[in-house]
Amino acid sequence: MYVTTLRRRKTKIEAMTKTLNVIKPFMHLVPGDTFELNEDGSYTAKQHDEFTRTDDSGDFKSSLISEFTVSADYMKEMAEEGIVDMDEPKKPFVNVFNEIDKMLNTYTSDLKNIDTDMDNVPECLKVEKTTVLKNLIKTLNHLKNLRK
Questions:
Q1: Could you say which of 22, 61, 92, 106 has the lowest number of CB atoms within 10 Å?
Q2: Which contiguous run of DSSP H or E holds residue 62?
């Protein structure tokens, strides 16, 4: 049984495909990230991260774009170790950090528009909503910074 599994994996590795999926965490990559085949035979994983923070002194936004390129030989080693696989993911992968970004954008927008949205509402409700939104934004920023 072990021999057939090894042969099957070797066959899959020899026929390297255009897109490889990360299935185990590796360096800064997480399951769901992909490597794309380049013209020179190497593989590249691209990531785009945005960070938003809101506090009493204002809004802060930063953006980071990174590319991680490896040779085809190294990619074969990663496939043999079970870090990447050529099969399509069985179910859609939802990256929690992308969801956090969406929520941060929504809550930040709500906080900026709170005066117009709650124009005819008692002041106490407006203060409460402001407090809740700020606490949600702080919590989401803390969770987002836990990414390794």
A1: 92
A2: strand 58-70
pLDDT in tens, 13-52: 445 678 888 888 888 788 878 888 888 888 888 887 777 7
Q: Residues 102-112: pLDDT tens digits?
A: 999 999 999 99
What single letter denotes the amino acid at residue 94?
A: V
Instruction: For the sheet with 58-70, list strands across it.
Output: 58-70, 43-55, 34-37, 19-22, 84-85
In contact, 71 and 35? CB cutoff 8 Å = no
φ, ψ dihedrals at 70, nearest 5°: -130, 155
- Of 81, 80, 82, 90, whose CA–CA distance to 7 is shortest? 80
Confidence band for 5, pLDDT divided at 50, 70 and 90: very low
